[in-house]
Amino acid sequence: MTDGEMIDLSDQVIVPPPALGAPSLAAALEALLIIADEPMSVETLASTTGRPVPQVDAALTELAADYRTSGRGFELRKSSTGWRYYTSADCQDVVTRYVTEGQSARLSQAALETLAVVAYRQPVSRSRISAVRGVNVDGVVRTLLTRGLLVQVGTEEDTGAALYGTTEYFLERLGLAGLDDLPPLAEHVPIGEELDEIIDGTE
Fold this sequence. Notes:
Elements: H1 25-34, H2 42-49, H3 53-69, E1 74-78, E2 83-87, H4 92-101, H5 109-121, E3 124-125, H6 126-133, H7 138-146, E4 150-155, E5 162-166, H8 168-174, H9 192-201
Antiparallel strand pairs: 1-2, 3-5, 4-5
Helix pairs in contact: 2-3, 5-7
């Protein structure tokens, strides 16, 4: 190409970014972060949403600022490994009270379902439990850990996600000598074998 020669771009095909699959980039980031087992890097979020890293980084920074100024009970923070939701420090007292007073309370339906998934498919990560139940289980898992029914038993090799299992206290409460004494899942879960197939499908 000589000096002054014009470049014809008329035949150039401009490829639009992939469909976001969410109402907005902010909504997409919120949906991904709320189900994340571990902090998510900007690169991972950018790859998943199909948006440039700088755009995603700016959107995360804006979200974090919005949460701080709107008095939410949670906040979005960046760590050395990525972004993640955390309970707001201003809400520590009410969270502590709930967890402490919950020691003597009966388990909720959500906690029982989560405990069942872990009991029958341990060791299992929070993301896999969430996939089975269709909801975020971070709060439920924390409650079960606090009440001594679950314990972290390791991490996934590929992702580094925490893996959870039941405790001896769990077996004591059920009057079982070991996990081999757990009854067939279909007899005690409302959708029985169907749920079993769903759990198998996430592995």
